[in-house]
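User: Here's a structure from my thesis project, written as structure tokens. My advisor, Dr. K., wants to see whether a designed sequence matches the one we expressed. Can you design one independently, without my sequence as a hint?
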């Protein structure tokens, strides 16, 4: 008996309710000894056939269970809301916070002492960690792993990134639609999440660097047998964490978040991770915002040569040694004493590289110097905006040009390929009404397509600005997450066609070159906001969603509410 175990408040003792609870579990063939006070580990699973990237997570859960049993615990797997990036409309980001509530309350309401979180596809990882962080039990993350490298006509085909390139080829008349469809069958060969350094891979890397996952978590391919070994080891480790009393808030420290940003910048990782890191920090009460991110990322070289910033894919990153080798290169920029689920970050770093694979470059020979992530401010983004210079065109990082404004996604799609569109390669494309409140849910449409007439002239990049997000697999000189958003009355709502906009990434500036008096006149004459949802989850989201600089969490979910023992139901 371990009366101090949380699970014993459900399963311990001789009262009739304990009898009923044990009896109910025994209906699944569970032996009586599982209720003797051993750690009960919940395996929180985002498996779903509607989330193809996570479709193998039930098999991975079996490996976690083996590890839990091996260490003397009792594993119980349970489902939570899953968020399939390719299928959900209007965007998975609308539901990230809802899924996090499911995770938090499922943990709190059940007889769990510790948790293993199984996620993979983009938003499933932050939703799991946000919910678990609020509940704050001992927690280990196991990522589903990247899919294998697909090939078309002998060339590697990156999941996600290839779609953007090939759809531009079709629009420019250089690829037929038949070829496009043929290529789509080659892209995703097996289970697993996108294999570029998109949002899913970035979040898997961050799980390892934050110290929430075991070394190796980010890069082992989903279908590689070694991922099942990692899952089994993670199950064992969850039991050890319960025994040592190490909670998630012991791991998610300010140092951990700074380390995460350094790694994110060095991998050329997804801008979406900025939102998720801020939201996760908010859940554990760590003060961590855009300025902390800019500071931590500043000067960090791009070391990982993966698409979309570089050439390779996650399988190549795995072969090159994955996160442990990357962290070895970054050692001097990291706090290696940061606590992790296995000890501290420095424990598993190789003393030297056993072989050199240029997919992970040396610090003195980076892919790009100081490419990192940049946070911009100015009168167009008073609360901040984000750009990933690693995925941008060097010549556009300092640019001034006339605005061409699209009111929303539908306006964009109606006009972008119009042969009479008044656009040149100097134009700055502006998209509004695509923020957390306005869309709603901040979709990944910030990398506006290049107008077809410019594509045909060989233009491949332009400055684009919006309050939307961008897929982590996308690329271009794209300013995202402008806050406050246009639907909340932010300055993006005041831009007119032809206004000059100045971007200067070195100086971290984003400015609308229109004087304040004129902007005040425009603001006074602005149309009132459009219709807002009046019921259902859409209403809750609209009423409570925070702006991008606060991670777009719901205001009432910020903070920790450690999972105590809820009131008895009988
Ligand atoms: Fe699931 Fe890209 S679609 S990770």
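Assistant: Designed independently from the structure alone:
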């Amino acid at each position: 008996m371990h009366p101090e175990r949380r699970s014993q408040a459900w399963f311990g003792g001789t009262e009739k309710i304990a009898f009923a609870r044990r009896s109910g579990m025994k209906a699944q063939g569970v032996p009586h000894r599982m209720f003797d006070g051993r750690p009960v580990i919940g395996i929180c699973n985002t498996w779903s056939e509607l989330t193809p990237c996570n479709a193998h997570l039930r098999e991975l859960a079996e490996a976690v269970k083996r590890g839990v049993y091996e260490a003397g615990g009792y594993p119980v797997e349970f489902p939570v809301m899953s968020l399939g990036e390719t299928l959900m409309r209007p965007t998975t980001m609308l539901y990230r916070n809802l899924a996090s509530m499911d995770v938090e309350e499922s943990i709190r309401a059940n007889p769990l002492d510790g948790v293993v979180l199984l996620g993979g596809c983009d938003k499933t990882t932050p939703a799991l960690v946000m919910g678990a962080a609020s509940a704050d039990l001992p927690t280990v993350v196991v990522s589903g792993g990247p899919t294998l490298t697909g090939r078309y006509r002998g060339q590697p085909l990156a999941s996600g990134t290839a779609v953007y390139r090939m759809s531009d080829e079709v629009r420019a008349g250089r690829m037929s639609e038949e070829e496009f469809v043929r290529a789509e069958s080659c892209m995703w060969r097996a289970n697993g999440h996108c294999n570029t350094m998109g949002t899913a891979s970035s979040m898997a890397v961050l799980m390892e660097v934050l110290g929430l996952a075991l070394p190796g978590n980010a890069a082992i391919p989903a279908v590689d047998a070694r991922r099942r070994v990692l899952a089994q080891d993670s199950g064992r480790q969850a039991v050890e964490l319960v025994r040592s009393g190490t909670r998630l808030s012991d791991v998610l420290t300010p140092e951990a978040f700074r380390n995460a940003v350094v790694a994110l910048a060095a991998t050329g990782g997804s801008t979406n991770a900025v939102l998720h890191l801020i939201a996760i920090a908010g859940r554990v009460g760590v003060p961590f915002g855009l300025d902390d991110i800019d500071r931590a990322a500043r000067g960090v070289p791009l070391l990982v040569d993966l698409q979309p910033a570089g050439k390779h894919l996650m399988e190549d990153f795995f072969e090159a040694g994955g996160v442990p080798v990357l962290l070895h290169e970054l050692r001097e920029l990291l706090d290696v004493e940061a606590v992790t689920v296995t000890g501290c970050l420095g424990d598993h770093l190789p003393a030297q590289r056993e072989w050199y694979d240029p997919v992970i470059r040396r610090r003195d020979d980076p892919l790009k110097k100081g490419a990192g992530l940049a946070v911009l401010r100015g009168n167009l983004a008073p609360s901040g905006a984000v750009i990933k210079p690693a995925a941008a065109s060097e010549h556009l990082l300092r640019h001034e040009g006339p605005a061409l404004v699209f009111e929303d996604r539908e306006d964009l799609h109606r006009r972008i390929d119009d042969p009479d569109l008044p656009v040149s390669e100097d134009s700055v494309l502006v998209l509004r009404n695509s923020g957390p409140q306005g869309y709603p849910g901040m979709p990944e449409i910030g990398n506006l397509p290049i107008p077809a007439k410019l594509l045909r002239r060989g233009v491949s990049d332009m400055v684009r600005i919006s309050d939307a997000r961008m897929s982590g697999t996308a690329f271009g000189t794209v300013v995202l997450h402008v806050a406050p958003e246009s639907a909340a009355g932010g300055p993006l709502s005041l831009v007119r066609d032809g206004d000059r906009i100045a971007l200067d990434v070195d100086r971290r500036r984003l400015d609308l070159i229109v004087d304040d008096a004129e902007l005040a006149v425009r603001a006074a004459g602005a149309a009132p906001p459009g219709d807002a949802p009046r019921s259902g989850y859409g209403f809750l989201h609209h009423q409570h969603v925070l702006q991008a600089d606060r991670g777009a969490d719901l205001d009432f979910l910020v903070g920790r509410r450690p999972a105590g023992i809820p009131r008895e139901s009988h």
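When you compare it with your expressed construct, this may help: Residues 298 and 500 are 28 Å apart (CA to CA).
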